[in-house]
Design a protein that fits this description.
The complex is a heterodimer of chains A (384) and B (390). Chain A is α/β, with parallel strands linked by helices and 384 residues long. Chain A has 2 domains: 4-118 and 209-229, Thiolase/Chalcone synthase (Peroxisomal Thiolase, Chain A, domain 1); 139-207 and 231-382, Peroxisomal Thiolase, Chain A, domain 1 (3-Layer(aba) Sandwich). Helices cover 36% and strands 17% of the residues of chain A. In chain A, the strands form 2 sheets. In chain A, strands 3-2-4-7-1-8-11-10-9 form a 9-stranded mixed β-sheet. Chain A has a two-stranded antiparallel ribbon with strand order 5-6. In chain A, helix 7 crosses helix 12 (285-294). The two termini of chain A are 16 Å apart. Chain B has a domain at 9-123 and 215-232: 3-Layer(aba) Sandwich (Peroxisomal Thiolase, Chain A, domain 1), CATH 3.40.47.10. Helices cover 34% and strands 18% of the residues of chain B. In chain B, the strands form 2 sheets. Chain B has a 9-stranded mixed β-sheet. A two-stranded antiparallel ribbon of chain B has the order 5-6. In chain B, helix 3 packs across helix 13 and helix 5 packs across helix 10. Classes of the chains: A alpha/beta (384), B alpha/beta (390).
Amino acid sequence: MRDAAIVGVGCTGFESVTPDISYKEMMFEAATRAYQDAGNISPRKDIDAFISVAEDYWEGFSIFDEFVPDQLGAVLRHLFTVSGDSIIGLATANMLIKTGHFDVVAVESHGKPSDILTLYDVVSFAMDPILNRPLGGHPFYVGGMEMNRFLCETGNSKEQCAMVVAKNKGNALANPFAAYGADTDVEDVLRSDPYFYPLNKLDISQPSDGGVVIVLASDEVAYKLNDNPIWLKGVGWICDTPSLETRCWSEAVYARMAADMAYKHAGINTPSKEVDFAEVDDLFSYKELQHMEALRLCGKGQAGTLTEEGVTSLDGYLPVNPSGGMLGMGWPLEASGMQRLLEVVLQLRGEAGSRQLSDVEVGVAQSWRGIPTATGAVAVLSNC
Amino acid sequence: MEMFGKKRVAVIGAGMTLFRRNLKETGKELAWEASSMALDQAGLELKDIQSVVMGTAPDAFDGVHMKGEYLADGAGSWRKPYSRVFVGGGTGVFTIDAGWWHVASGQFDTCLVVGEEKMSSCYPHPAYAFTTIFDPIYARPLGVTLIWIFALEMHRYMHVHGIKKEEIARVSVKNKRNALDHPCAQLGANITVEDVLNSEVMCWPVQRLDISPTSDGAAALILASEDVAKKLTDNPVWIDGVGWCIDSTFWTNRDLYFPQYVQGAAQMAYKMAGIKNPPKEIDVAEVYDPFDYKELHHMEGLMLARKGQAPKLTAEGVTQRDGDLPINPSGGLLGVGNPIAAAGTMKCCEIFWQLRGEAGKRQVKGDPRTGLAQAWGDLMQYGSVVIMRS
């Protein structure tokens, strides 16, 4: 059996607040667009399995799975929830198709953080309840500590991290789906309020609401549903360790191992040469640099220099986060990975509008589940 | 590069902890204990495990957000591909379905499947965690509880078929007696139908002895591809069918007398396993029984009994361990206990042990070749099924 392909994508766009639309309407809108994009398929007869990606505490429910089927057209059909990142949802859809028992699988992801009154307190509830949570404080201090260690060990600089912010928010200005596009420079970032040293306010992605649905199909049916299928060449996902005390604080081991797994399936040996562009997790500015190095898009300690030289800009030879990343589009919780994946699909299809990259064939999407996890996933996609 | 292919999947090891209220072990420790027992039975070490799937129910029990992440190292998932699937009470059986596709896809040769639950740390009672499973606008303001909605369902089931409480109580008597032979069981007991009928009324017609207990525990299974399984054991058990199905969120808008979603899950699994006549072809079944009426309700959903006929089979002794169609020889959730996700995985373990002839005093008569485990979840809405063959 050959690779599976993405034959449909649908997105609501991302906004800082969405009082006019419920999470169910958001899911319906993204799903309807994805089904239309996939040759106008009917979820009630054409989709063999549905995967929703959600976490109870983000949603304010116990057992959020209950509230998923109707708006996806999945009543009395084969739906389930993966409590994880949306690229892990994609990996799950891929496995279902590879069993040979499923031809078309839909993956739904959304985030509505504006509905959460105490977003960062919810994040605190993910900290180890015995060893870490009693220490108190805003949980993003973990990001500050990691940034410090990462910069110290790799020689990347705080200024280079600020350049990531300026680049991504600038890219987002050309992305109609993005919530936080802005004309920002390095000085703005360095002068913004210190939040979790060395993280400043503008180094941190802000929450955004939005949903993305994708439709994955086996190679047998892909061309029937879409003339321009985007092939999933490889996917990998890794949980490093939940333990803050024993993990590696400089390198994103989860991203390196997940990338190795995805590259192996995709037959990619030298990612820095074979990958045309990447969408990586940038919840914090330094994470883009750390993840570029973990994905072997450059050597250790080189990501900052490449950024400085403009290599990762839209007109560079290795554009990173042409969408604007999470710094530009916002942080839609578990949908963050799918937000990355969406841009890779649009770029590979040639549908990225004014931010379209030229001559791209292979793109990588990477996700991280955020504080306090060391879990991430990587997908390699190609239009040929 | 060709990395995938359709593969047959075997179960080669199983393990479980005691099921108890207020176990001292943390959730991570419970997950570890069950996983290492399963590894021991399979003759494998953690380094041989290529992927891990976790099943665990609401985070509200533990008060830990992203509970799957928190439990990961307990389930042996250090630096491994790891994911958590979650379909409410259906999670325990669904987790082995998820393990199946990890191996059947050809992506992994081995998968560790873990179901874990620690309910008793939820104060004052884990039932409070379930007050947040309801729609915040339509249902929560009514002060709905789980027992309240199951009382509605039980009543409807009894009413449509003219079933008496006495007929349903027999399930509780059978399962608690079966559990006396289970070394991990929490509530094995010799009780009578009278005891059930005289127990405290919780929410009519549900009485205390109709309900499974609050429990902590974990259960685990090792799955392997055909090639790996044949090297490790002469006695693999094959996963020949998996199925799952979800009904509408709006449980108030459908007739609760029959679980159509369980039927949908069963049809998917039977089709995959090539089963045309379930009551004849299934030799032993672990049917989800958090309440005694649910065993009957689910037997009908699984098409192991015709609609309204499951109480009759129970009265005739057909579902006893020495009957023609033994149901819940383990003692089920009513007897062994109900740590939600772990309870469903325990049912899969029991089918594995029964098909291997390793169930000791619980072994059903004859030589069972085909077994089924089923769980049910969400808002009276979800069915998950696995079919195994020796």
